[in-house]
Amino acid sequence: MTARAPAIEVRDLRHSYGDLAVLKGVDLEVPRGRIVALLGSNGAGKTTLVRILSTLLRADAGVATVDGHDVAASPAEVRAAISLTGQLSAVDDILTGRENLVLVARLRRVPGPGGVADALLARFGLAEAGARRVGTYSGGMRRRLDIAMSLVGEPSVVFLDEPTTGLDPEARREAWAAVRALADGGTTVLLTTQTLDEAERLADRIAILHEGRIIVDGTLDELRALIPAPTVEYVERQPTLEEVFLAVVGGKDRS
Ligand SMILES: Nc1ncnc2c1ncn2[C@@H]1O[C@H](COP(=O)(O)OP(=O)(O)OP(=O)(O)O)[C@@H](O)[C@H]1O
Ligand SMILES: [Mg+2]
Question: What is the pTM of this model?
Answer without folding.
Answer: 0.86
